[in-house]
């Protein structure tokens, strides 16, 4: 049991003043501490690294594209290679911040980088390889050890502050908690407990003050689609509710109504973290199977109750007036920036990505303007309110604590372009200087809910010394005199007490009035906030209405388009049918053609065979006829030879005498040697009456006037064979071609090419030349 001591401290009250960054001197400022951590390239990914390490503080990003080599170098406070352990990162980055935290200073630590670069790994890590968060929790509890305030003695006032309550009240709260815990199913507790082990390496921070009690509080929120959700909220079947951000009486930003739990061990803290982690919005993307879709903020607040004394039993004595120092550490796992063309996100993922990118963009803008303000000593407005992320951490940028950033980098060459943007932002952030923060100690009175009056008499109670009752005895005046003195003394005491009570009442009234004024101010702020929220809600409603109208319009258009699409599909279907039919017919035609071709080939083969056979027959026949004619001719020649006897000396005169004196022979005589006369052709000239000749003359024949002209009683004269029917006319059986040409001496020679026209079995005709008569004119003088 605690007893309220009479100890009245002289508080080290530090008033928090808002100083703009640009007006403070350099010694009061410190830059944002920026570290870089490289993650190993995944083993199965066959990609090159685009990072070259120059020194423990410098690295270069390199890339070669289209024959051009690009190399950009950056300097950081420290660069952790892919081989750096989680402990190294913790020792370098988080340990100093934790040391500040246990002195009551604030710190903000966030991981920044593109998706899949190792932000969650750095901050949370794995069960056997814990990251910064579990190591922080372990280190805090390792350090404070037994110096923990009994649970619920320090209590959140629900307005971002704390109050100290009496041990009796704390005990009642503890009992209530035990009762509510006993109602939680055992299976659930066991399930949660199984996951709460991160390996603890026993890291400690030496504490300066052994007369201080510590209480650790944690809360866990996420910013998803620019809304704040409490991941530790008791849901009881509800969905997570959007929380609003508020400013407390000290102008610090906080999440209104956030569940802040006092934890007494690291395991308890991990249990809460894991419970929140299950609610945190994670999702699958092409670039990271477990991608954070929100910014998550794990807040650790360490409240110190200073200058405690200890009673005989070794228990702390809580004074009436307390000195509270509050330090807080925000561990922020930012969602990764991502390019939609790489993640190929659509729908919800796309909306998330655009919200993530917007909030990161606002963070960049705030940093840029802060830097500009500091460098150009200007006073541009920093747009913290544009995003919940920057609005929540506005105090840090204005000098309420140190800021450290770990830039996580996946060195894959595929991430080169995006890493460039990240590095640019990181480099810019290093130039921003933040006011150094100092611990703030507040004086708080111990609150007692169960007020019990000192003494109760009948129906009234009094806190003044009572006047003793005395019997009036006139015989004993001495006793009466001492009694009166006593009463006078008591009355004096009562007067003094009354005065002190008056003073106390006046002070209490003043305090109460002050508190009322504060409450009133907060009330006014809340009203303003509610008003602005209402305006936002109205605007949103208006937007929703507009969107609904648009959606309806779209639905109508969509309906029409669907109708049109159906019509077009019907047309397409019928066209497809037509095409199918045509294809079928085409195929049939091709088949038929193929068949016909085959038939024609068969018939033509047959015909050519028949034709060959006929031809052979005719040739044989003609040969036979020729042979018979030759035999006849031979016989005629023999007869002629036997008739004509030519004496060797008068041969020329004998010829003349043997040749009958026909007009033709006379002509031959007359024309002397101009014409050569052959007996055989003359005889070969057929005189058959029935024969029809096809006389093929030259266009302008030279008139012959000779005996050589064949006798063609029935004839058809042509100068040109233009048509096949000129030959194939079945009535014609003979052919004679008259050709005249001049020899080199200019003498005319006439040739008669004679032939038989033989019909062929194919319906054509064959011209078989069998005789040539030549008639040549010569000048006797030549
Ligand atoms: N330093 C490291 N050593 C080993 N593995 C790592 C390291 N950093 C990251 N990884 C692995 O890379 C993968 C992606 O890491 P992580 O989920 O932390 O990325 P992230 O930056 O948080 O991504 P997102 O922004 O999409 O949430 C994980 O499987 C993680 O285990």
From TrEMBL:
Molecular functions (GO terms): ATP binding; ATP hydrolysis activity; microtubule binding; microtubule motor activity
Keywords per UniProt: ATP-binding, Cytoplasm, Cytoskeleton, Microtubule, Motor protein, Nucleotide-binding
Pfam families: Kinesin, MKLP1_Arf_bdg
Chief localisation class: cytoplasm
Bias kind Basic and acidic residues: ranges: 171-180
GO annotation (BP), single: microtubule-based movement
Compartments where found: Cytoplasm, Cytoskeleton
Region called Disordered, residue ranges: 1-26, 165-196
Stored Gene3D superfamilies: Kinesin motor domain (3.40.850.10), Kinesin-like protein Kif23, Arf6-interacting domain (2.60.40.4330)
Domain Kinesin motor: 31-432
Residues engaged in binding ATP: 113-120
GO cellular component: kinesin complex; microtubule; nucleus
Family from the record: Belongs to the TRAFAC class myosin-kinesin ATPase superfamily. Kinesin family.
Record PANTHER family: KINESIN-LIKE PROTEIN KIF23, KINESIN-RELATED
Protein name per its UniProtKB record: Kinesin-like protein
Lineage: Eukaryota, Metazoa, Ecdysozoa, Arthropoda, Hexapoda
């Amino acid at each position: 049991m605690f007893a309220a001591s009479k100890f009245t401290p002289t508080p080290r009250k530090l008033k928090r003043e808002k100083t703009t960054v640009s007006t403070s001197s350099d010694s009061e400022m410190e830059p944002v501490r920026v570290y870089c951590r490289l993650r190993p390239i995944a083993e199965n990914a066959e990609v090159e690294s685009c990072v070259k390490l120059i020194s423990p503080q410098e690295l270069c990003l390199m890339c070669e594209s289209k024959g051009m080599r690009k190399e950009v170098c950056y300097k950081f406070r420290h660069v952790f290679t892919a081989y750096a352990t989680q402990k190294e990162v913790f020792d370098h980055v988080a340990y100093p911040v934790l040391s500040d935290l246990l002195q009551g200073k604030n710190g903000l630590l966030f991981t920044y980088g593109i998706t899949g670069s190792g932000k969650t790994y750095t901050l949370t890590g794995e069960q056997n390889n814990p990251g910064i968060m579990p190591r922080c929790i372990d280190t805090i509890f390792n350090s404070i050890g037994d110096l923990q305030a009994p649970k619920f003695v320090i209590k959140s006032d629900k307005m971002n502050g704390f109050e100290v309550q009496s041990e009796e009240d704390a005990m009642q709260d503890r009992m209530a908690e035990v009762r509510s815990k006993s109602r939680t199913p055992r299976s659930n507790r066991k399930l949660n407990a199984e996951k709460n082990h991160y390996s603890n390496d026993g890291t400690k921070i030496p504490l300066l003050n052994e007369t201080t009690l510590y209480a650790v509080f944690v809360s866990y929120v996420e910013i998803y689609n620019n809304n704040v959700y409490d991941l530790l909220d008791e849901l009881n079947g509800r969905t997570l509710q959007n929380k609003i951000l508020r400013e407390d009486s000290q102008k610090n930003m906080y999440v209104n109504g956030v569940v802040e739990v006092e934890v007494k061990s690291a395991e308890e803290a991990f249990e809460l973290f894991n419970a929140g982690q299950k609610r945190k919005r994670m999702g699958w993307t092409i670039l990271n199977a477990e991608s954070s879709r929100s910014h998550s903020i794990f807040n650790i607040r360490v409240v110190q109750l200073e200058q405690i004394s200890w009673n005989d039993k070794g228990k702390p004595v809580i004074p009436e007036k307390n000195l509270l120092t509050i330090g807080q550490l925000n561990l922020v796992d930012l969602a990764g920036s991502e390019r939609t063309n790489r993640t190929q996100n659509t729908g919800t993922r796309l909306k998330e990505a655009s919200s993530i990118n917007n909030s990161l963009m606002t963070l960049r803008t705030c940093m840029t303007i802060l830097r500009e303000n500091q460098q150009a000593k200007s006073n541009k407005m920093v747009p913290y309110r544009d995003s919940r992320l920057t609005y929540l951490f506005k105090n840090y940028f204005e000098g309420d604590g140190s800021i450290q950033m770990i830039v996580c980098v996946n060195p894959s060459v595929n991430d080169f372009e995006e890493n460039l943007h990240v590095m640019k932002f990181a480099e810019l952030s290093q130039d921003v200087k933040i006011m150094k923060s100092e611990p703030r100690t507040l004086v708080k009175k111990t609150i007692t809910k169960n007020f019990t009056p000192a003494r109760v008499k009948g129906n009234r109670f009094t806190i003044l010394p009572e006047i003793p009752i005395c019997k009036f005895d006139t015989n004993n005046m001495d006793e009466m005199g001492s009694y009166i003195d006593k009463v006078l003394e008591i009355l004096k005491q009562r007067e003094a007490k009354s005065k002190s009570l008056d003073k106390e009442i006046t002070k209490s009234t003043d305090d109460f009035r002050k508190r009322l004024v504060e409450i009133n101010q907060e009330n006014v702020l809340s009203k303003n906030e509610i008003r602005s929220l209402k305006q936002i809600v109205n605007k949103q409603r208006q937007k929703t209405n507009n969107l609904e109208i648009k959606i309806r319009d779209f639905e109508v258009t969509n309906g029409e388009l669907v109708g049109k699409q159906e019509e077009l599909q019907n047309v397409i279907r019928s066209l497809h049918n037509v095409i199918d039919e045509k294809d079928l017919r085409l195929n049939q035609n091709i088949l038929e053609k193929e068949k016909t071709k085959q038939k024609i080939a068969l018939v033509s083969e047959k015909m050519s065979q028949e034709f060959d056979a006929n031809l052979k027959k005719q040739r044989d026949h003609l040969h036979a006829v020729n042979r018979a004619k030759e035999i006849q001719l031979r016989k005629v020649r023999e007869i002629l030879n036997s008739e004509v006897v030519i004496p060797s000396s008068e041969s020329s005169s004998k010829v003349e005498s043997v040749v009958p004196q026909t007009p033709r022979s006379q002509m031959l005589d007359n024309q002397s040697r101009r014409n050569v006369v052959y007996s055989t052709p003359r005889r070969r000239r057929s005189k058959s009456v029935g024969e029809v000749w096809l006389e093929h003359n030259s266009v302008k024949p030279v008139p012959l006037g000779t005996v050589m002209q064949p006798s063609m009683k029935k004839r058809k004269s042509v100068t040109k064979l233009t048509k096949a029917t000129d030959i194939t006319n079945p009535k014609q059986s003979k052919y004679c071609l008259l050709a005249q040409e001049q020899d080199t001496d200019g003498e005319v020679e006439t040739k008669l090419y004679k032939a038989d026209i033989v019909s062929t079995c194919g319906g054509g005709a064959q011209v078989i030349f069998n005789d040539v008569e030549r008639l040549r004119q010569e000048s006797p003088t030549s």
